[in-house]
Amino acid sequence: MKFFATQQFTRTAIVLHWLLAVLLVGQFAFGWLLDAIPRNTPARGWWINQHKSIGLVIGLLIVLRIFWRLRHAPPPALPMPAWQRRAASASHLAMYACMVLMPLSGYLASNFSKHGIKLFNTVRLAPWGSDDKLVYAVLNQTHKVTAVLLAVLIGVHLLAVAKHVLVDRDRLLARMWRGAGAGG
After folding, report:
1. I need a surface site. Which of 16, 50, 60, 111 has the fewest CB within 10 A?
2. What gap in Å lies between CA 55 and CA 100, rounded to an integer?
């Protein structure tokens, strides 16, 4: 494994961070707006398949981000109390766990439904599981709960960034924002 230790994140890490941030926020809104579309209507099926398709793309980007993160160490932590460093590590680990579990549970749930996934409403990915309402319900509920948990963790993440910018006035945000000129 190759590790870099710089003061800024790599260009790839920055692009993946902000791309996933925008896509996840959009997908949260998309998922919550789906409740407004009446069940058992053609329109709902079309939009659900769009949500599933985008979720698959986001899931692949998350795998890419994790792969990149495992191969490239982040910059050294800024000076802060040990409890804050531990809290940051725990919250990042929890966000990564949610980012894996949320699309995975959505994908698995789709495979325990007779509907499966119609990729961008063009290519049908036939479900490989049985049409099992209980398994579907458990996986779908896991998907929804994980989405809420990830949204809360993102909120905490944003509050921590605000604290670093407004109170500590350190370079935490600059390392993920202006670091686009960094190598890689």
Report:
1. 60
2. 11
